Amino acid sequence: MSVTLPQPFYFKGGDSAVILLHTFAGSPMDVQILGRNVQRAGYTVLGPAFSGHATADPTNIFLKGNPTQWWADTQLAVNQLKADGHDQIAIFGESLGGLFAVKAMEELSNIVAGGTISTPLFPIDTGKVAERFLQDARAWYKKIGISAETIDTKMAFLHEQINLTLQGIRDYTVPIHDKLNVIKQPTFIAQPDADELIDRTVGPRLADTLQNQTTVSYHHYPNAPHVMTYSPQGRELADDLVAFLKMVF
Predict the structure, then answer these.
(1) Could you give the C-alpha distances from 149 to 110, 209, 229, in angstroms and in order?
(2) Is the pTM above the cut of 0.90?
């Protein structure tokens, strides 16, 4: 079966630039509609793909990617915008992407603002994340028409890797959490209250942690799911993010 794979996007706009980072096991498609809405408001928007993602085979997430490589991908995106003459950059991420958006705020110059959407900066139970990943992977393999034997082989590999990788992400998050006190840039935090995958308190907890050291724009969305950029609340999220950007730039 021939499939069209999601691609990174680079929407040209004004001098102020925005990076949007996607979810674990997702792709730039997660945040592409959000990116278009931000571009229409006058910003340049870059949506990179994390290594191993946006391919025809979910095993590539583990064979070609890991948190260290995804951080390198984030730095590459920032450097690309800087090389193209964008001196003021804001960076936001959904779920996994938010971890690297926060790390960029902590460590990189030229990052004037940033934030998270559905991002766990605190220890959480990732059992539902693993379960959803495995379900989606099996459904994908069936959709593209590979043999049952090949599916079984690939799924055995994914079962071995998913919890190891999620633990690796948890471990990688610890020093990012421990440096939250250095963040001084305005921070946007979006929390879907109907998140079906992770603890719904992670957004307000992050807001509480940062509120005494910087400007925090916290928004919750009562009926939004984990990947809320695809949901009916996606437009409201875009409007809120654009309003935040207009205060920053």
Answers:
(1) 50, 49, 35
(2) yes
